[in-house]
Amino acid sequence: MEKVYDYVIVGGGTAGAVLAARLSENSEVSVALLEAGAGEGPAIMSDGNPEAAVGLWGSSVDWNYTTTPQSGTGNAVHTWPRGRVLGGSSSINGMTHLRGHASGFDAWEKQGAIGWNYQEMLPFLMRSEGARGGDPRFRGQTGPMTIEEPPAATPLAQDLYDAAVDAGHPRCEDGNAPQAEGVFWAERNVAEGRRQSAADAYLFPVLSRPNLTVVTDAQVRRLVIENGRCRGAEYVRNGEPGTVHAEREVVLSAGAVGSPQILLLSGIGPADDLRRLGIPVRAALPGVGANLHDHPLAWISYGVKKSPVPGPSRQAMLFARTGPGGDPDILMSFTAVALEPRWAGAQEGFSILFGLATPASRGSVRLSSADPAAYPLIDPAYLTESEDVDRMVAALRMARDIGRADSLSAWRDEETLPGREAVTDEGCGAYIRRTVGTYFHPVGTCRIGTDDEAVVDAGLRVHGVDGLSVADASVMPSVVSANTNAAVLGIAERAAHLIATRAER
Ligand SMILES: Cc1cc2nc3c(=O)[nH]c(=O)nc-3n(C[C@H](O)[C@H](O)[C@H](O)COP(=O)(O)OP(=O)(O)OC[C@H]3O[C@@H](n4cnc5c(N)ncnc54)[C@H](O)[C@@H]3O)c2cc1C
What we know:
single chain, 505 residues, alpha+beta, FAD/NAD(P)-binding domain, Cholesterol Oxidase, domain 2, 7-stranded mixed beta sheet, 7-stranded antiparallel beta sheet, 10 helices, globular, binds flavin-adenine dinucleotide
């Protein structure tokens, strides 16, 4: 079966759902969206409680990736959930809606992504948002992505918030403000108590458009490239091969793992690596798959003297900085259970989670084989830069100051993690290396820029190949200082605008 469309979008995750909906608003163009996963998932996928998301990891809607052994974390192999279903990772994520500090976007332009800064991104971040209230100068109120007023705080959730204030952190009215710093209540992508994935918000409401074709269970194996131009994509569906052709553009939105993997399988990437695997080189682009990074995440946990009232509850979060000057580089959140390391389980108690918002460590996504069905080698290089360990140790100490604050004295029992093991910097560092894991925010593997290692230009077009763009988390030169979904929504909104506008010329 061969079909021709104006646009072919590969991957129906956060970015792909936005692109399919926005590009098909023009009834004059035809759009095909190919998604490797299914159209829907288990019932808990629509549960609006973020803790329920843990039940989706390792399920049929998760790619179930693992990392390569990580030298920075005692050679641990980390499980790496990624959504494989319409809505992609927004269908299995924690639903936190948080853009990050303006400086995280401005950092993109400083690395050569001309025109990709906070001010230029702001209209697109706002376009995606359906926030309740907020400052209309920087909050979008009419966008598809609903942000519901969170439930009231349970007593423990309120005391965790107050403990952050006791420890000297300012109250921050809106965590999505451009200069947000201090403690705030998290916003979530929840509508009427149910998860709102990007597919729920953007794609499902427009599925009946005659110019939009959505093909699920279709895993793209490689791109069709002829004379330096991308003409379409080859996929496999139920064991049968198929090809779709694009008259105007193919847009890769397969995420920080999938997009570089498809480019590499198509002969676009580091030439020597491709030749070694027997893949003909179509465009030598050394940066494809490089620059992989993620926020490292760890936590401290406490037992409690009395049982907390069970949720639902709003949840406090915190932007803080490890050093004087600079921008916030630590993101914290709080749970009303005492988590065991790397999500191994939970006891009665509470935890204070801390992630490094601006990690320095950089890894890669590489092919393990020329076989499109083989999983790639994912190396996030956690804690390979010693400054990341130092700042995580500083964050642990900050978290401990909050855990020991007066507002928690009615609850707090023993510090169960790390406890007495981590007193000195060495002890804290060893604990961090032993327990750190993914914050689920990989980015950077097809980054925007103009240097030799950049993969796409400021219009998101792949260097050296016509008719091919990338629009998803992979194009971020560096990770934003918060959970990544809101930023990806903004990138995809902007990509849709760029792609539609250049077609008009
Ligand atoms: C467990 C978890 C918790 C998270 N929690 C939060 C949170 O609370 N808040 C937040 O802001 N962010 C969170 N994130 C991160 C956020 O969800 C992601 O940054 C965002 O969804 C990435 O969007 P994307 O479009 O780049 O990729 P994805 O949404 O992952 O979409 C990629 C899509 O491409 C498809 N695909 C891949 N390869 C192929 C192929 N070869 N052929 C066809 N289709 C393919 C995939 O199946 C997937 O549907 C979390 C992520 C995870 C996994």
